[in-house]
Specification:
The protein has helices spanning 54-65, 85-98, 111-114, 120-127, 141-148, 155-169, 185-194, and strands at 11-14, 17-20, 40-41, 44-45, 72-75, 102-107, 131-135, 172-178, 198-202. The chain is an alpha/beta fold. The strands form 2 sheets. The chain has a 7-stranded mixed beta sheet with strand order 1-2-5-6-7-8-9. The protein is globular and about 45 Å long. The structure holds iron/sulfur cluster.
Length: 209
């Protein structure tokens, strides 16, 4: 079933979390990516017609921030949030100043490839991000390339490096994967455990339409 036709959402909510959809760009082409099959999630349309600037993100967030006792604010939409590091930093600073809510970034872990020369993890931490969930998605490079079809050649190594640096910086760090047939869950867990981070394996829900 397609999401109803309506204006694209920069801000949407699921459960007790607010989500920020700040870009539709991503250097991966994962075959299970929601964007390939749907226009949005629930009643929210996440295909953006225009890339929002920081002020627009804050304006939309401001409208609902005090409407519920939200648990956290999560950068996660139909694209890779670290494509827009500066927006994340500015919005996070605003959130910490005006609400103190926990901020999380769901990322594919290619932040250093997307932001050459930047100290991405340190900048996130200093702005007030508390947690990163990193889509490691595979037990090795070969499997990662099959599943995620990255544009960057050394994507998998960079994802591992991002997780390592995030963990070392003191950010709460979780490695995630979905249960597609290529993944060997026990070996994926071993990789995460070796790096000393938590892991989460989400069930893969195939699309049939
Ligand atoms: S990394 Fe995330 S947004 Fe990018 S293609 Fe994969 S599932 Fe989609």
């Amino acid at each position: 079933m397609q999401t109803p036709d309506r204006s694209p959402s920069i801000v949407y909510w699921l459960g007790n979390s607010i989500y920020l959809n700040i870009t539709n760009k991503c250097p991966n082409r994962c075959y299970f990516c929601f964007r390939r099959f749907k226009n949005g999630i629930k009643e929210f349309k996440l295909k953006l017609e225009k890339v929002p600037n920081t002020e627009e993100v804050i304006e939309e967030l401001h409208k609902i921030l005090n409407k519920n006792n939200w648990d956290e604010i999560v950068f996660c939409g139909f694209g890779e949030p670290l494509e827009r590091l500066d927006v994340i930093l500015e919005v996070t600073r605003w959130v910490k100043k005006h609400s103190g809510k926990r901020v999380r970034v769901d990322t594919n872990g290619q932040g250093y490839l997307l932001n050459k020369g930047r100290d991405v993890v340190r900048e996130l931490k200093e702005a007030g991000v508390g947690k990163v969930c990193v889509s490691l998605n595979a037990q090795n490079k070969e499997t990662y390339n099959k599943i995620c079809k990255p544009t960057f050649k050394n994507a998998y190594e960079n994802v591992l490096e991002f997780i390592k640096r995030a963990k070392e910086s003191g950010l709460e760090t979780e490695a995630t994967a979905v249960t597609v047939s290529e993944i060997e869950v026990s070996r994926f867990k071993e990789v995460a455990e070796k790096m000393g981070v938590k892991f989460l394996v989400r069930e893969y829900i195939p699309f049939f339409w």
